[in-house]
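Quick illustration, no need to memorize.
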Amino acid sequence: MLKKLYDLQNDHFNALDKYLDLETKRIEELKNCVAAVYEWRDHKKTDQHFLHDHLDVIKVMTQMQHHFSKIEDLINNKQSTEALHHIDKHKDLSGDHVLWAHQALRRLQLFYAIPASDMAAGRINEKIIGDRMDACECFVMAKYCSEGNDIYGVLDWAVEAYTKWESDGRPECVNIDILNYFIASSSVYTGFDFMNLVNPSGSNYQEYTEKCVRYYHLIRNELFELEKERIMDVMGVYNRLQGNTIENEFRHLCKRGVSRTLKKYLKCRYQTNNLFYRILMPFKEEDINSEPFIKIYHDVLYDDEILKIKTASLENMRDAHIRTTGTNTALKERSRSGQVNWINEHDAVEYLDALNTRVESFTGFSAKTAEQYQVVNYGLGGHYLPHHDTFQKGTENVMFGNRLVTVLFYLTDVQNDGYTAFPMLDIIAPAEKGSALVWHNLNMSNGKLCYETLHGSCPLLKGNKLIMTRWLYEEGQHLPYNWKNK
């Protein structure tokens, strides 16, 4: 989405440049035309007898008509303003985009437990991840937290904005009265003593403090009313994970990063899967977990294929949805933030036919009944809370059974974060461009769900994470059980 906005911005710049060029040309012509009129006028002033000659009078009238007609045309010229019509306002940056961006920042802050002071400094755990935020930007963060009834966020960012407002020379972009209201009201609500949080020498601060104390009961009642109708906090959904153990483990894995140690039963190898044409180009197979089965296959997706996938998908990305139990209606969920596109069969055959053969080779399963390739883009704060990839009966079309195997391709490298985490197994997998993460969703002996394959995508602090998923179904596989009767 950011790339589309940058492209749109370039379109706007090009339209404005064209407008300025045309407008500059028009003004120059207008100046030259007016200068010619003035020159002609000054010349005639020196000749006192030209009005006595009828032919001269007619020439004067003709010249006046010509010059003023041309001047009028130049003044009314619409060619330059028409250049501005190329700016497509309907595709411009909307308030929703900005709101989602700030929600993403707040979600990252809460998930990784980053103080506003650190985030405003562009760092996490003493590591620089972005530019420094100024007082104005911190004030906007406090404003968006206030609009979302995120009172603790209001307090955190408002105090940071106040500190920067004083150190940055008190910029006018910060409305100090509103900022004081943010600090005082959120302090009343949260129980913090706001008197100790900011320097009481700010503009009209003493007067505001007295009013706050005087009207405390009114503020309290107003805040209680807000609480009744408050919008769900952007992090509230994290509290609905499967118990605190899973929640804490997921966060711990995402914060800790990748640290894989091979054990005696987990190895790396060159794998041909008994395919003669793979002798010269074996798969680079890395064991991640034995039961349930989780492996990484390195360098199975090539740069030209990744380019084709991006070409076929990025222009058609839509906000990601998940399906809720008992309904076929796709709803936006706070548990998932990203953009998604399904590659149609025509493009899949044209671009990914060879990849299908590769998938069948390293998984050992048929892809003939597989689901369409799904491309997902995780941008700022992009994440997917821990979930299973299998369906529950009654929630999906189960013509081909359940999702037996997940093949997750990484189309980009992601530094520092954006891992795929398995909290029940204490496993994290890095996002490595060109590799495929493969795991079994079902027990191969009886088709029952492997609960340990609960997995999620860690919130993205920096960069862009692009993945592609292929789900292989039970139908068409050689299985020891009859999935239709299970």
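The first strand starts at residue 123 and ends at 124.
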